[in-house]
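Tutorial handout. Part one gives the primary structure; part two gives the three-dimensional structure as C-alpha cells.
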Amino acid sequence: MEERAYEYWFYSLEYITDTERKYLLDMCGNVREIFDVKKHILQGLGNISERAKMSICYRRDMEMLQREMEEMEKKNIRFVCIVEKEYPERLQKISNPPKILYYKGRLPKEEKSGVAVIGARNCSAYGKKVSMEIGEKLGKNGINVISGMARGIDGWAQKSAVLNGGESFGVLGCGVDICYPKENIDLYEKLLSQGGVISEFKPGMPAKSMNFPQRNRIISGLSDAIIVVEAKKQSGTSITVGFGLDQGKEIYAVPGRVTDDLSEGCNHLIFQGATPLLDIDETVLELKNYEKVKGEKIKKQEKMKVPLESDQNLVYDFIDFIPKNIAQLAKELGELNYEKLNSILFDLEIEDKIEQVSTGYYVRKT
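Part two.
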C-alpha cells in the first residue's frame, strides 16, 4: 500500500482525539508503523481509549481501504490530509480543523479572497435579489463565494457567482458524492467546473441534521469575511457567525425592516457590532482590496460576542456522568432549538468537556 494510503487510513479514523493521534505518532514514528502495530501492544496502551482502539482495529483492513480509494477514484473524489501541503492554509488556523477533506472539483486557491454568503433557507424575494446581486459582484471581482449550497440565500448567491464567471465552493453536511438538497443539482454540477464541493464526511454519508453545525466552521474557516443576508435570530446562520467570530472574521449583515422575522437576525448582529452592508459595490471593493497578513488573525469587532457563549454553560449544567441522549436534553432545554443544541454539544466535545459515548448519547468528562 502506498504511503498516502496509510495517511488516508490514519486521518480518516473516527473516535480518536488529536491527543491520541499525537501520542501514537510519537510512539510509533509514522502512520505505517501505527497501521502495523501488534494488537496486544495496542490493547496495552493506557493513553488510548477503547473506542479509539476499536476504530483502529476495525479500519486496519488493506482490502477495504483499497476498495474505498478505488471507489473514490471512479467518482472523481479526491482527498487531502491535514499534514499535506495542499491542505487549505486558512483551515490550518481554526480550532479543531478537519483531519481530512474530501472534494470534487478543486479546493480554493490560497491567494484568492473568499467570502461566505449565508442566510435563511426560506428567504424572501428581497433576500433572493440581494444575495444574487452580492454573488454577481463577488464573482465578477474574482472573489470566491463560500457557502453551504443550501436552498435559499446560500444557493442563490452561489448560483449568481458562477453564472457571472466567478468561482464558488459548496461545503456539504454529507458526502461530496451526494447532492443535498437535490433541487440544487444544477448548481452542484456547475461547482465542479467553477469551484468545488468539499466535505469532511466520507463519501456516501447522507445529510444529517447533526452534521450541519459541524460543517459551518469550515464555511467560515475558508472565508475572509461573512455576509449575512437574511436570518432569524435563532438559526443555523448564528452558528456560522459564532465560528466566524472565534476565527476572527469580519462580519457584515444586510439590515432589514424591524417588523420582518427574517431581518431580526441581521438587525441583531448589527446591534452587536457587525458592519451593516449598505452599499454592495462599496462592500465588494473593501473585500477585494482587503489586506490579509499571513499568520495574523483579522482584528475582531470588539462589540460582538459569540452567540453560543452563555448557552454553553447552560447545556453543560444539564449533562452529568450518566449518559443522556440529545432528545432528552432538547426536552429539558426547551428554549434551545435542535440545531443550536447540536452545535453547542459539538463545541463542548471539542473542548473535551463532554464525550459522545454512543450515537446521540453524551456524558461529562470534567
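Part three, for discussion. The mean pLDDT is 88. The longest strand covers residues 100-105.
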